[in-house]
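Before the break, one more example. Copy the sequence into your notebook; we will annotate it together after we see the structure.
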Amino acid sequence: MNKEDQTVHIKIDKNVQIHDTNVHVRDIAQVECGDKAMEAKVKSLRLDSVQVEKPGRYVCSVMGIFADIHRSFPEVAVENVGEDDFIITYEKPLQPPVWISYLKTAAVALIAFFGAAFAIMTFNNDVDIPKLFGQLYLQFTGRESDGFTILELTYSVGLGLGILIFFNHFAGKKLTKDPTPMEVEMRLYEDEVDTTLIEASRRKPDKEKRGGSK
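Here is what the structure looks like once it is written out:
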């Protein structure tokens, strides 16, 4: 067995979710090794450096993972191709009742609907859309608007279609494979939160970092 076959490559994402307090390498990292038997052993190795007690987020360092692997397999060379510091999010595998999920969805939908409706009505009132459309209709047709013309109709239809296209959703299905603006913002927010937690952990004394900091 040559040296390259004994090299273990591990890749850990910035935020890893687990559902068990007993954390193994396979739970948080992708592992690749030329020696498949060694790869299986490393994957099944329990991590003593990761101490998870209750639901929450724990900041850990890949150096602790290296130490655990070398403690059990001193002959193995380990190379990291992922994050140097990462977050383990521990959540208990409990599913809420279905009716609670439906209730939350309905509440969010109602808040979004009435919030968007209020924002649109406020905008229309600020720019005086009815007066503007009346002036445009009179200018192009020479007739007074009765309040519901082709302008109001196309504006209403275009507003709805624009929202569907912008948010890339219709009846629970995406119109394209591109992420929605909301998904992009959520990913940016999650990345900023993870970065902040990691940076805050780096400023703590070494004794507080052992086993990962919450």
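Residues 98-127 form the longest helix (30 residues). The chain has two domains: 4-94, 98-202. Try to locate both features in your own notes.
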